[in-house]
Amino acid sequence: MIEETGVGAMGILVMSDSHGLVREVEQVVKRHSVDHIFHCGDFCVDHTRPPFSGMKLVRGNCDTTKAVATEALSKWRDLTILQTHGHLFGVKSSLLRLHYRAEETGANVVLFGHSHLPVCGVERHPVRQSRQSADAARF
Prior knowledge:
Blueprint: E1 12-15, H1 22-31, E2 36-39, E3 56-57, E4 71-76, E5 79-84, H2 96-105, E6 109-111, H3 131-138
Parallel strand pairs: 1-2, 2-3, 5-6
Antiparallel strand pairs: 4-5
C-alpha cells in the first residue's frame, strides 16, 4: 500500500501502454517531480529495470511476467486508488464492470489503460437502484 509521503507532496504521474518504449518513459519520468508513478500495464519490458522498478505497476494483457499483479489498491492522501490495466474488465466496450469493481474495493479513484484513449470522468454517486424502481421493474 502506498501512503502519502508528507507535507509538500507534488502529486502522481499515471501512464499506461508504453509497450517497450523505455527511453520515452524515462523522458516522461524525468520531466515530472511527483510522489508516485503508476503504470497501468503493457509496459512490455523487464519490470525490475529502471524506470519501471520505481513505479507502482500492474500487469496488462501484453505483459508476460507473473510477478506483477493484474490489480492493485493504494492509498494516497485521502484517496483509495484502484489500479488495473482494464482488459479484464472489458473497458473498450463499457466501464460498468470497472465501476462495480471500484465499489467492491472501496476505491474512489480508478486508474486503467488498455483502450489507448485518454479518459477522465467524475462520478459523484455510486450507481444504486432504489426500492421504488426495483418494484416498478417487476410489473
